[in-house]
Amino acid sequence: MKASVTKGLGQGFVVEEVELAQPLGHEVRVQVKASGLCHSDLSVATFIGEDFPVVLGHEVAGVVVEVGPQVTQTKVGDHVVGSLIQYCGACVNCLSGRTFVCLRPEATLRPAGQPSRLSWQGAPVAQGMGLGGFAQETLIHENQLAVIPDEMPWAPAALIGCGVLTGAGAVLNSAQLQHGETAVIIGAGGVGMNAVSGARVAGAETIVVIDIEDGKLERAKAFGATHVVNSRTTDPVEAVRDITGHGADHVFDFVGARPVTAQALQMVAKGGGLYLIGVSTGDAGVEVNSIATLSASQKVQGVYMGSSNLKRDIPLYASLYLQGRMNLDDLVSKEIGLSDITAGYEALKDGNTARVVITDFA
Ligand SMILES: NC(=O)c1ccc[n+]([C@@H]2O[C@H](COP(=O)([O-])OP(=O)(O)OC[C@H]3O[C@@H](n4cnc5c(N)ncnc54)[C@H](O)[C@@H]3O)[C@@H](O)[C@H]2O)c1
Ligand SMILES: [Zn+2]
Ligand SMILES: [Zn+2]
């Protein structure tokens, strides 16, 4: 089968003929129908990856074509979405419903000693995040898959697996925003827009979106932002205080640069929270003054994958989309072929492109 292989740091994405193993145990063979281009895969391919060659791609949707002997949660013909959240289902965190902090995430991968799921020219090939969606087919552990309704279109379905779980989950699960509360979303990209959708679903009274590009802010209004602020031209801390009166109940940082996060903390109301999701520099973080923070009863929380339970949340967002209550169509800016990944990532630099999705695997 064809797969796009990254052979080393900075060596891009090259389509090759790659072998896929037979499904063992809880593995499911999925024919990929859509695969989203997320920034983190580009980071792996250009500066943080260690395991090469590798097939990346972690926003995957497709059809189940074969199941391993121990699979119980899905069957041939099911439409599924994959997620990079790996969980064992048996540790104390999994058993308390918090699968996103599983203590044995490697349980969804093949243990050392077993043949690789992927190989190229007779040698093993790594599989990005247990998913490897930049390929015609892939083998995924059933715990990393959720079944979606057949009528869900493929391109928006793929985006649910990372960007939607992260953005909407940050609001609904991590912050547990209550109706009538106020939210600030910093960074109006492909993930931040889903936080806007999440805030809308939860009944936020005020949804302020902050970015440095007017085009992104215009799009944010279409997703449900009640106020937008261009932080290049307006002091965002003052703007948030003007809009909310006393700061925001929940401030979500999808940018992750020290000056931005410092401003984000200043926007938090008494009793409110700051949520750290994005990382754009190696020293991303924030200085927290204990006295100021304790006297205002504030919290600062790191958010991994929107604190999501993928088996519950992926079908939920698909359902909200099908009911017209969650905008995913405007996230799909461009559909491309498997051999166009490099150009697809280039296109993402354009301010008007939210997400690029591979839908042609021929
Ligand atoms: N924590 C997690 O589990 C998790 C999961 C997925 C993605 N992420 C991260 O979430 C972040 C957002 O992802 P994305 O795909 O939406 O990225 P993106 O590039 O599409 O969006 C980032 C947005 O931030 C804006 N921006 C840049 N600098 C800014 C500044 N100084 N002030 C205000 N806005 C600024 C950009 O204009 C852009 O609209 C990334 O850092 C990504 O790695 C985290
Ligand atoms: Zn991602
Ligand atoms: Zn576990």
Automatic annotation (TrEMBL):
Name the record gives this protein: Zinc-binding dehydrogenase
Family assignment from sequence similarity: Belongs to the zinc-containing alcohol dehydrogenase family.
UniProt-listed InterPro entries: ADH-like_C, ADH-like_N, ADH_Zn_CS, ER, GroES-like_sf, NAD(P)-bd_dom_sf
Organism: Streptomyces chisholmiae
Domain Enoyl reductase (ER), first and last residues per copy: 8-358
Alphabetic keyword roster: Metal-binding, NAD, Oxidoreductase, Zinc
Keyword Metal-binding carried by entry: yes
Cofactor field: Zn(2+)
Domain of life: Bacteria
Pfam families attached to this UniProt entry: ADH_N, ADH_zinc_N
SUPFAM superfamilies, sorted: GroES-like, NAD(P)-binding Rossmann-fold domains
Source lineage: Bacteria, Bacillati, Actinomycetota, Actinomycetes, Kitasatosporales
